[in-house]
Write a structure and sequence with these properties.
heterodimer; A: mainly alpha; 82% helix; B: 287 residues; alpha/beta; Rossmann fold; 6-stranded parallel beta sheet; 13% strand; elongated
């Protein structure tokens, strides 16, 4: 047997055993099984933490060449981003997250910029609503009316304008929208269960694996 | 000077059809004015309290003294402007009661810094002791996996945000698993609500109370209507409602007028846009 086949079989066995331990813990009450499952979960959580480091490496792999090649109109943005990443990391690692410089960066750069990015959505929505939200056909008209009624339900003033708006909006949200969401959620969950079982028994390659 | 109309058709068509090509910067500036004025000078438009917010308030109010709560601050800096004030208000209400509070997030690395900046002072001002009445664990990486592990062993991160050993903190003396927790107050802008329902409610029947962004409301209503989420503060509107209920007035109330007016502005724009579109279509068909 070639080493490739052996390594594939070992990978499959690890997936089967870990998958079964975690899965069975949800159905069978057994202290040893629970301890094993918890150990595997902690292990996986630690691996997820490492993925943050992998993401940082990915950013460097993408942006360092841009800086080195002096790509027109881009390189200075990349250089600035890399500089800020290195600076924040150094302060955070050596000074701790309580360090005044780290707190200053968080409060005066990160926080306002994040809020700004989110707030800009409002402008895009206004522009999109004005130019793209059109009653072009029956489907679009139904969508348009539903959107307007749900907006009237969401705004505090809606109920004061007419007490029927919250009733209609709530009905739209709780009956037709909910039915759609439930269908999607159930289909997604059943699909996920099927996919997980296929991964555990080796019929499917796990994502990225 | 640049034209107020996008494109070069100023002289063509009716007023409404010209409206279709209005420079978007005008729409943006009107929006800015409509947001800023009511915040500076509140109008005091009515704010009816919804059932979801009332149920969150009632559930918290009726929790027994000494209950252990998990406060999951997964808002993140990006959505803080929308629901941060609601989380602050709920924290003020929690701090006014005799609860023990454990704070973490399994999805937001900003949890520690945001909690330090906005929430910890609330506990200090209420005379609560760190490590005894409240503790900040901070970011626990791993999302759903970490939540599943925390439900089985809440001390598994080992250290709090400041490097203290969790085993040495008084708050953890009788707290180990999700069975020891009375309720989770989750503030989220992502998929955390669904993770808590599957890992904490389905298995341990822990009461889940949710503070979520407006965009998540329809999705979370599935769990709310099924009784899996007991109460919910929904978006910026919910922030104003919870402030009214608790009496801790703040940014939520002052932005409620802006919320109503900007929604109304959006609806008016949709109506104008559609009338203009229909008129233009009629003219085009006539030609």
């Amino acid at each position: 047997m070639s080493s490739k086949i052996i390594s594939k079989k070992i990978t499959f066995l690890i997936m089967l055993i870990t998958g079964l331990i975690v899965l069975l813990d949800y159905f069978i009450e057994n202290p040893e099984l629970a301890a094993g499952s918890l150990f595997l979960m902690k292990l996986a959580a630690i691996l997820v933490a490492f993925s943050l480091g992998v993401a940082a490496v990915g950013i460097f792999r993408l942006h360092v060449p841009i800086v080195l090649k002096r790509v027109k109109g881009e390189w200075y943005f990349s250089a600035w981003m890399l500089f800020v990443i290195v600076l924040t990391t150094l302060i955070g690692v050596f000074g701790g997250v309580d360090h005044p410089a780290f707190q200053w960066i968080f409060s005066n750069i990160f926080l306002p910029l994040s809020s700004t990015m989110f707030a800009m959505l409002g402008f895009f929505i206004i522009s999109a609503a004005y130019r793209a939200f059109r009653a072009r056909g029956l489907d679009a008209t139904v969508l348009l009316l539903t959107g307007v009624l749900v907006m009237l339900m969401n705004m505090p003033l809606g109920g004061a304008i007419w007490s029927g708006f919250p009733i209609i909006g709530t009905w739209l949200r709780d009956i037709p929208a909910m039915a759609g969401y439930r269908g999607v959620t159930l289909a997604l969950t059943i699909g996920l269960v099927a996919y997980s079982i296929r991964v555990i028994i080796g019929y499917e390659k796990p994502m990225g694996g | 000077m640049r034209s107020l109309w996008e494109g070069d058709n100023m002289g063509e068509g009716s007023f409404l059809s010209k409206m279709l090509t209005i420079d978007r910067r005008i729409l943006y500036w009107i929006l800015v004015v409509l947001i800023v004025i009511p915040i500076i000078r509140p109008i005091g438009l009515p704010i009816p309290v919804s059932e979801t917010t009332r149920r969150l308030y009632d559930t918290l109010k009726n929790l027994p003294e000494g209950s252990v709560l998990v406060l999951d601050n997964s808002v993140g800096a990006i959505a803080w402007a929308e629901i941060g004030s609601a989380l602050e208000t709920v924290t003020k209400f929690i701090a006014s009661k005799n609860f023990r509070v454990i704070i973490w997030s399994t999805t937001s690395p900003e949890c520690g810094s945001l909690t330090e900046r906005y929430l910890l002072d609330i506990f200090k001002k209420a005379g609560k002791k760190y490590g005894e009445d409240y503790v900040l664990i901070g970011y626990v990486p791993g999302a759903v996996l970490a939540l599943a592990a925390l439900a089985r062993d809440m001390r598994y991160p080992r250290k709090d945000f400041y490097g203290n050993d969790l085993d040495t903190l008084k708050i953890f003396e009788k707290v180990r698993t999700a069975n020891d927790v009375a309720a989770v107050v989750l503030a989220e802008s992502g998929a955390e609500g669904y993770a808590y329902v599957t890992q904490w409610y389905a298995q341990y029947r822990v009461t889940i109370l949710d503070i979520c962004t407006g965009a998540l409301v329809s999705e979370r209503m599935i769990a709310y209507n099924a009784g899996q989420i007991k109460g919910m503060v929904a978006g910026a509107r919910g922030s104003a409602e919870i402030e009214l209920l608790t009496g801790y007035l703040g940014a939520g109330i002052s932005s409620a007028d802006a919320l109503s007016i900007t929604h109304l502005y959006l609806i008016i724009l949709v109506v104008i846009g559609n009338i203009a579109y229909l008129e233009e279509r009629k003219v085009r068909r006539g030609k």
